[in-house]
Write a structure and sequence with these properties.
Distance between the termini: 52 Å
Shape: globular
Number of helices: 13
Radius of gyration: 23 Å
Structural class: alpha+beta
Largest sheet: 8 strands, mixed
Strand order of the largest sheet: 3-2-8-9-10-11-1-12
Number of strands: 16
Strand content: 15-25%
Helix content: 25-40%
Length: 388
């Protein structure tokens, strides 16, 4: 996927009418892409195979609170009137289980098979939110840049085509505007759509982010965008930003976390935390992993798999002599401090994109924005008490 350039990118360049959306999907298929997009399954909006518009969550939105997620009807025919589900691009670019290699045979005669990165299918992802694009860019720093790029990630990343959809329906736990990662997609897409749907009209304002994205529309019915239509798309994004469910003050946040390594807040939060690792599993940027070795009962086949792990599991920090972080408070502190502080030291960016998934899928509703606010409040109170 190409990065956008000034020449390639045209804000609100075209209009895709709702009636022509299947033609858009047909063009993606014609260009050789498998299409992955939002679908409704098991009472959640998750990524799945998309062939026609009817596979999308038409007329469905999602309700997010701390430890709470529900789908409900919108009363409209909008295709993308939801915020985020438990899936993100991480589920595909960095799968939860991936085979590293397989050994077949005996000790005297064996072969080693390594998965062929060239066999990665070409995929188009539709409905990708701005926060997810920022998360992908963060994972690029981890897996695709520097001296130790992951060949599997790089192969999956190189072959994708991204259709972003600017968010018009933020949920109660969203705070992407605080993190500078949404609700409008600014980069890392081939095509970006803004859905305008009301009682009298239903269309998508199209923005091209790459030469491939622009070329795709040679096979899709479209027309030029009027000034009123471009303004309507701007209003959708502005409305989403105004309706963000939460905020996070990020000023000096790295140093705030470092200064409060011994804060009593960690023990208070740990009394609620189940160390279930849900927050890291749904997080679009978390990348901790471990390896699992398996051997067949016959002894002639062995495999090594990389699987997602979490800093919340006690075995994750296990070294000779035991686990480094035995308490729940130390593991929670590790997660939030890495996410908001030491990530800056490693990758020159925050590890949080403000999608709010960690709040929604925490069984007890621990809220990362509230934790940051509590540290600030406690610190300010300490200064006031000492006359600082």
């Amino acid at each position: 996927m190409s990065q956008p350039t000034t020449e390639q990118t045209s804000r609100g360049a075209a209009i895709l009418d709702r009636a022509d959306f299947n033609s858009f999907l047909d063009a993606l298929t014609k260009h050789g892409y498998e299409i992955i997009g939002p679908t409704v399954r098991d009472s959640a909006i998750v990524f799945g195979d998309v062939r026609r518009d009817t596979d999308l969550p038409i007329g469905v939105t999602d309700e997010h609170e701390g430890g709470h997620y529900r789908l409900k009807p919108t009363g409209s025919q909008a295709l993308f009137a939801y915020a985020v589900g438990p899936h993100s691009l991480k589920n595909y670019l960095y799968p939860s289980r991936s085979l590293l290699y397989r050994v077949r045979g005996s000790s005297s005669d064996f072969t080693v098979d390594v998965p062929n990165a060239e066999r990665v299918p070409r995929r188009a992802y539709i409905g990708v939110r701005a926060c997810e694009l920022r998360a992908m860019a963060i994972q690029d720093k981890v897996f695709a840049e520097g001296d130790y790029a992951d060949p599997g990630y790089a192969a999956r990343r190189a072959g994708l085509f991204i259709v972003a959809v600017n968010c018009g329906s933020p949920a109660g736990n969203c705070f992407c505007s605080s993190m500078g990662s949404g609700p409008k997609a600014e980069a890392h897409f081939d095509v970006a759509l803004t859905e305008v749907c009301d009682d009298t009209r239903h269309y998508f304002v199209v923005e091209y982010g790459s030469a491939q994205g622009k070329a795709l529309f040679d096979d899709v019915p479209h027309r030029g965008a009027s000034e009123n239509e471009r303004d309507a798309a701007i209003d959708v994004v502005r409305g989403a930003e105004a309706r963000m469910g939460k905020t996070m003050d990020t000023s000096g946040i790295r140093d705030l976390l470092y200064r409060n390594a011994q804060s009593p807040r960690w023990e208070e939060t740990a009394k609620r935390c189940l160390a279930c690792a849900n927050c890291t599993m749904v997080c679009p940027t978390c990348f901790c992993s471990t390896v699992e070795d398996t051997t067949s009962l016959s002894g002639d086949n062995a495999e090594r798999w990389r699987v997602w792990d979490s800093c919340f599991t006690i075995d994750f920090s296990h070294i000779h002599g035991g686990s480094v972080r035995k308490s729940g408070s130390s593991r929670y502190r590790q997660w939030i401090t890495h996410k908001l502080a030491s990530w800056h030291d490693q990758f020159d960016t925050s590890g949080c994109v403000g999608c709010g998934r960690c709040i929604t899928w925490c069984p007890v509703g621990i809220d990362i924005t509230e934790e940051v606010s509590a540290l600030r409040t406690a610190e300010a109170g300490g200064r006031a008490a000492t006359g600082g």
